[in-house]
Specification:
The complex is a heterodimer of chains A (about 230) and B (about 325). With about 230 residues, chain A is an alpha/beta fold. Chain A has helices spanning about 40-50, 95-100, 110-120, 120-125, 135-145, 165-180, 190-200, 225-230, and strands spanning about 1-10, 15-25, 30-35, 60, 65, 80, 155, 185-190, 200-205, 210-215. In chain A, the strands form two sheets. Chain A has a six-stranded mixed sheet with strand order 6-7-8-3-9-10, with helices on both faces. The longest helix of chain A has 16 residues, at about 165-180. Chain B contains 14 helices and four strands. The model of chain B has no long low-confidence stretch (mean pLDDT about 95). Chain B has helices spanning about 1-25, 30-55, 60-80, 85-105, 110-130, 130-135, 160-180, 185-195, 195-200, 205-230, 240-255, 260-280, 285-295, 300-310, and strands spanning about 140, 150, 155, 235. The chains are: A alpha/beta (about 230), B mainly alpha (about 325). Chain B: It is a multi-pass membrane protein.
């Protein structure tokens, strides 16, 4: 299984953000997207999900074209997206949020069990209103809800931003378990230590394109690539 | 969760029990008023499905009320239909007009949706006036007594009228509660909370909102038909903007996105109007002041505030 992107252009109205972007994510691997602010990382994830119109180029999952599909069709083809800022359905309980997440897939109880095994903390809070969860729990729920779609590819946009270290560790563990389950994880992450610990590959973005792809084996924290592309 | 479910059903059934018994301890005048409130509450429940749960702020619900009213009233007037078929025609009329309205108006959102629904409602009102030879325009018409009977009961008399209003209200309330506890109800709330996020979970916002608006139209149609058949009058005044704003006020007062809020809002607003009218000719001022106070001190409406502060289990 592979998500393939070739020559992708996309943007907002007259402003082109992605300029001929190429990218590949494979099952059971974590691919990190890194780059300075404004290079188009979040825009790329939105374009993959059909949330912004794509100009030219192709997006295929297992050879099936995704570009041009209405946004609500994309999750049914195997992509799930956890954007920045969590965006839960605040007045609904944890259980209801998960049920809304899995409805288009028929709410299989086995899937829900697997998701709750990944985030046991949520199991104790099923009846709690989502808006009253801590920031870390909300992020877990946002990821768990996306996983109820049984995605082949999981897109995570800075999932640990602003969270305390113990919660970050839990989320990172879950991401590694998902990788083991064969999910292709695409992770936008700015912290070098997290990237080196989690990722199999890093795609460095510059001005709306993937400029360089590096395997994390043999990549050190002081590698010039980080300074060049991320500025750290 | 299970305990909350029992508590919720118990609360709703207790309210229905109190309302069912009200005809025995209220004066005929008050019982008739309560029947009217229950019918208007059904209208408000429908509005609540669209606005309170799905986030569709419509200014065109008078069109849906009038659609139900005329779809029930005109066959009764022209062809002598009895109450049963006329009511079903009203229900269908409200739902059908809501579906057509949705197909057109849901291409817009937010303020534009509000304006477009208002525009369609005004067009509906003017259509009723334009076709006055059939609709009787502003004067309206009375529904004949022969058309106001159901299974041998004369709906123009106190007890059958009250019981019919109660039956429609109870059905509306329980359906609304069941809906909100169903997956589709949660989808409606998800749509209200974050449309883009819902789309990312595989929902088509247009389809969900269209279904919600059509359901809302069925409620409005039922209320319009019930009003025509129980109170015997059909008129174009029910298609004016006032009847688009009333359900919004009921819902805002009682609590948007709560199952019991529309009834509470309709009841309190009705009582407030009655009390204010008895006090002064400037009764609109008192009502306005009450609404301003509500917005200032309980912006989520009465039951919305109760739910937020004390009873999170309230649906």
């Amino acid at each position: 299984m592979a998500l393939e992107v070739q020559g992708l252009t996309a943007g907002y109205g007259p402003v082109t953000v992605l300029r001929g972007l190429g990218f590949r994510a494979e099952a059971g691997r974590i691919t990190c997207l890194m780059g300075r602010n404004g290079v188009g990382k979040s825009t790329f994830l939105k374009a993959l999900m059909g949330l912004i119109p794509v100009g030219t180029g192709t997006i295929t999952l297992d050879g099936v074209a995704l570009q041009g599909l209405p946004a609500h069709q994309v999750p049914k083809r195997g992509l799930a997206y956890v954007p920045q800022g969590r965006r839960l359905f605040g007045p609904l309980t944890v259980a209801e949020n998960l049920a809304v997440g899995g409805l288009v897939r028929g709410n299989d109880p086995a899937v829900l069990e697997r998701v709750l095994d990944l985030f046991p903390r949520l199991r104790d809070r099923l009846a709690q209103v989502a808006g009253t969860l801590s920031g870390g729990e909300q992020q877990m729920l946002a990821i768990a809800r996306a996983l109820c779609l049984e995605p082949k590819v999981l897109l995570l946009d800075e999932p640990t931003e602003g969270l305390q270290p113990s919660i970050i560790a839990l989320i990172q563990e879950a991401v590694v378990v998902l990788k083991g389950q064969g999910v292709a994880v695409v992770l936008v992450e700015q912290r070098v230590d997290a990237v080196l610990r989690l990722a199999d590959r890093v795609a460095f973005m510059v001005a709306g394109r993937v400029e360089e792809v590096r395997d994390t084996r043999g990549l050190a924290a002081d590698d010039p690539a980080f300074r060049t592309y991320v500025g750290v | 969760m299970r305990r909350n479910g029992l508590r919720v059903w118990a609360l709703h059934l207790a309210l229905l029990a109190v309302l069912a018994s009200a005809q025995f301890w209220l004066s005929p005048y008050l019982a008739t008023n309560l029947a009217r409130i229950m019918v208007l509450a059904v209208f408000a429940m429908g509005y609540n499905l669209a606005f309170g749960y799905t986030g569709l702020l419509s200014l065109g619900h008078a069109l849906l009320l009038a659609a139900g009213m005329y779809a029930a009233g005109l066959p009764a007037l022209l062809w002598g239909w009895s109450a049963g078929p006329a009511f079903i025609a009203g229900l269908a009329g409200g739902g059908l007009v809501a579906a057509v309205l949705g197909l057109l108006a849901l291409r817009t959102a937010g303020v534009s949706f509000m304006i477009v629904t208002l525009m369609f409602a005004q067009a509906g009102f003017l259509t009723l006036l334009y076709f006055a030879p059939v609709t009787r325009g502003n004067d309206g018409f009375a529904v004949a007594a022969a058309s106001r009977s159901f299974l041998g009961f004369d709906l123009s008399t106190d007890t059958p009228r009250f019981l019919a209003a109660f039956a429609i209200f109870a059905t509306g309330l329980l359906v609304s509660l069941a809906l909100m506890r169903s997956p589709f109800g949660r989808t409606m709330i998800a749509m209200r909370e974050n449309e883009e996020r819902s789309r990312m979970l595989g929902y088509n916002p247009f389809t969900v909102k269209l279904a919600a608006l059509t359901l809302s139209g069925l409620y409005a149609g039922a209320a319009g038909a019930a009003y025509a058949l129980l109170f015997g009058y059909v008129g174009a005044s029910f298609a004016t903007i006032q009847y688009s704003i009333l359900p919004m006020l009921y819902v805002l007062m009682g609590g948007a996105g709560t199952t019991l809020g529309p009834f509470l809002g309709a009841l309190l607003m009705f009582a407030l109007v009655e009390a204010a009218t008895g006090l002064t000719t400037a009764h609109q001022f008192i009502i306005g002041a009450a609404l301003v106070a509500l917005v200032l001190f309980a912006p989520k409406g009465i039951l919305g505030t109760v739910r937020e502060r004390w009873a999170k289990w309230l649906p």
